[in-house]
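Hi R.,

Here's the chain you asked about this morning:
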Amino acid sequence: MPFLQRKQSTPHYKLRSEIEQLLRTAGIHTGMWARSGNLQESKRATPTEDGGFEWVLTTEKPTLVWDWKRWEFVYEVLLADGMLVPANGQVVLLDSHSRYSVKDVLGHVRDFSETDAGEYAARSGIVYFAEDADSQAAKQKVEGRHITDGSVGYKQIKSIWIPEGDEASVRGRTFEGPLRVTYEWSLMEFSITPIGADVLAKVRDLHSLCGA
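And the predicted structure, written out as tokens:
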């Protein structure tokens, strides 16, 4: 059943609207996905000689994400070699996925490369902060290891959903369901994020009330 028809027919329309609002507040808009990680070594940034920070942007570790098509949380593997970047070779660095003002832009990310984080393939990039006061304040928090976490904002281009009990081969690798494997995706932005309220946890709570 199409999403709009399902939403209008459900008695939990208000809850669904609240879920959408929470996701938008977190910078996750319809058709967009974001992957956040817990505070861990693989997510930390390493200073470079030119003042940037080498940062592991995302890994192939299965991560719980919100799926707009299925209207539920699913585990997803984001293949590292499937990442596409804009023609100019860089994306904006945002404050917690906020994109409503130029003031939300703290800098940019470029010089992407393939790497690994523990047992998982990953993609890294060099994070550069702008020269304004707010961006430099954020940079100082990164330098002081007060902020060590990040999250990619991306658009899914090609993916496959593997139901529970099934398996599928994607680019010569076998994956078992239930799992969404995204093997081509466009990097839209990278955000530095604080340790704070878990918006997705709030969405999970609301989603359980929907009974969807």
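The chain has one domain: 3-210.

Let me know if you need anything else.
M.
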